[in-house]
UniProtKB/TrEMBL annotation:
Keywords: Membrane, Metal-binding, Mitochondrion, Oxidoreductase, Transmembrane, Transmembrane helix
Ranges for domain Manganese/iron superoxide dismutase C-terminal: 119-186
SUPFAM superfamilies per record: Fe,Mn superoxide dismutase (SOD), C-terminal domain, Fe,Mn superoxide dismutase (SOD), N-terminal domain
EC number: 1.15.1.1
GO MF assignments: metal ion binding; superoxide dismutase activity
Protein name in UniProt: Superoxide dismutase
Classification via InterPro entries: Fe/Mn_Superoxide_Dismutase, Mn/Fe_SOD, Mn/Fe_SOD_C, Mn/Fe_SOD_N, Mn/Fe_SOD_N_sf, SOD_C_sf
Length: 201
């Protein structure tokens, strides 16, 4: 019983699930996009959007739900070894779901103001901390290109210095050291193309 309490409140809670106990876990579903798959063309094609959303993101959700179901079964049986083993799958697939859910909200069609350099307070902060918007774009692209495999480039506000920072996380790890402003998905498809996107402020 003590193990059940620790796992559900701390481990699952830290993943943003918000559960007080492990039994009766809800299943997660693919979130709808706030725009059509064609809305971001020509920056991102319909085919890439569908593949990324319906296949790539959905796979994380499917595996996340599966891992959570297995966790519930393992905890019911008191199988501590299985509980520990499942943490990696929960972190990876849960992170993939959470990060992509944030990512989709970063993208805005040009018809709604997307694709324009940021203005106001964010524009001023970018100029102050990076020198210019162009310099920030170069840094984001350089950090993304340096990632091996897939991962994320984050623009955030450092919690201690309160300055804008660009940070990276590998695979599906979520940024925790800074308050998130923007996230850029870096992935290499079968043809090994690097996809980097700056689409909105």
């Amino acid at each position: 019983m003590a193990l059940r309490s620790v796992i559900s409140r701390k481990t699952l809670g830290s993943l943003g699930l918000g559960f007080s106990h492990a039994r009766g876990l809800q299943t997660f579903t693919l979130p709808d996009l706030p725009y059509d798959y064609s809305a971001l063309e020509p920056a991102i094609s319909v085919e890439i959007m569908r593949l990324h959303h319906q296949k790539h993101h959905q796979t994380y959700i499917t595996n996340y739900n599966k891992a959570l179901e297995q966790l519930e079964e393992a905890m019911a049986k008191g199988d501590s070894s299985a509980v520990v083993k499942l943490q990696a799958a929960i972190k990876f697939n849960g992170g993939g779901h959470i990060n992509h859910s944030i990512f989709w909200k970063n993208l805005i069609p040009t018809s709604e103001g997307g694709g324009e350099p940021p203005h106001g307070a964010l524009g001023w902060a970018i100029d102050t901390h990076f020198g210019s918007f162009e310099a920030l774009v170069k840094k984001v692209n350089a950090e993304g290109a340096a990632l091996q495999g897939s991962g994320w480039v984050w623009l955030g506000v450092d919690k201690e210095s309160q300055k804008l920072v660009v940070e990276t996380t590998a695979n599906q790890v979520k940024l925790h050291s800074s308050e998130i402003i923007l996230v850029f998905c870096v992935f290499r498809c079968i043809s090994c193309f690097l996809v980097m996107i700056w689409y909105t402020d």
